[in-house]
From TrEMBL:
Residues 4-123 form the Gfo/Idh/MocA-like oxidoreductase N-terminal domain. This is Gfo/Idh/MocA family oxidoreductase. It comes from Salinibacillus xinjiangensis. Residues 131-264 form the GFO/IDH/MocA-like oxidoreductase domain. SUPFAM superfamilies: Glyceraldehyde-3-phosphate dehydrogenase-like, C-terminal domain, NAD(P)-binding Rossmann-fold domains. InterPro entries: Gfo/Idh/MocA-like_OxRdtase_N, Gfo/Idh/MocA_Oxidoreductases, GFO_IDH_MocA-like_dom, NAD(P)-bd_dom_sf. Gene3D superfamilies: Dihydrodipicolinate Reductase, domain 2, NAD(P)-binding Rossmann-like Domain. The lineage of its organism: Bacteria, Bacillati, Bacillota, Bacilli, Bacillales.
Amino acid sequence: METIKVGIIGCGSITRFRHAPEYYANPYVEEIVFYDRNLERSQALAKEFNGCVAETVDELLKDPSIVAISDCSSNETHHIITSKALLSGKHVLCEKPLAVSVEKAERMVEAQRKSGKKLMVDHNQRFTKAHQKARELIASKELGEVLTFKTSFGHQGPEHWGVNKSNSTWFFKKERSHSGVAGDLGIHKIDLIHYLLDDEVVDAHAFTGALDKVDENGEPIEVCDNVVSALRTKKGRIGTASFSWTYYGEEDNSTTIYCQKGIIKIYHHPEDQLIVETKDGEVVRYQLEPIQTNDNQTSTGVIDAFVESIIQDKEPLVSGADALSSLRVIEKILGE
């Protein structure tokens, strides 16, 4: 059985709770090499996951035994690290958003084309059983055509999840996060709508605001903590999307799809992750799996899919082009 050695760049929460454990559990991965600007962080994860440490990014990228990397750096360096890794002959799984601007993301997609390596982006909502089932139902046209939709993604904010659990989190910094909640949570839902509907959002009008979050100095943050938007797709569907870092209660990750003959409700109910209500009053409930939340870490399936695309030499399930089309929508939402 072929096995591969992988590297991870950036050792924050996303690496600790998702990338590292999922690579570690994957039978095709023989070893993980960790890099972080903060050496103590990479050493701690290497110890926890039986890996080793690279002292520089270059050391990791020049190691011919490393086949693939996860780019878990903060948003503003994705275009640099991912492009460099691709051109160094590595396959790359990049965290979302792909980049801080469409222009920088286009350079990454170009680097992927030039390198011939795989570029996958961590839009993990495509991998949940409820979303996959909903896509099947929509494609089958059992409920007719999709007319409208609404989706939301909100929780208490990244300061409750980030590695340092404080308001000094890089997510709140304009020069590092760039797009605030839009690029953190919103882009997941845009990608999901594209995936569920096999369609693309082409027009967006939105209100954005920094309504409640403050930084470590008690000042309002420089990026948005809330977005409410109205969207229109290429095929003429219209819908709404809300993203928030100020849902101070249970996380909301729900989507509703309104079709000609009924409604599909996703992640509205804790036990019935998918509920179909037909026009004539029939209700079908699907119990598939609980959604992964920041408080309930389950395997996302992203790492397994990425590794499989390398071992079996097939197209990744979320390509650079997919991620680029979602980023275009985020730029529209932010009015950039």
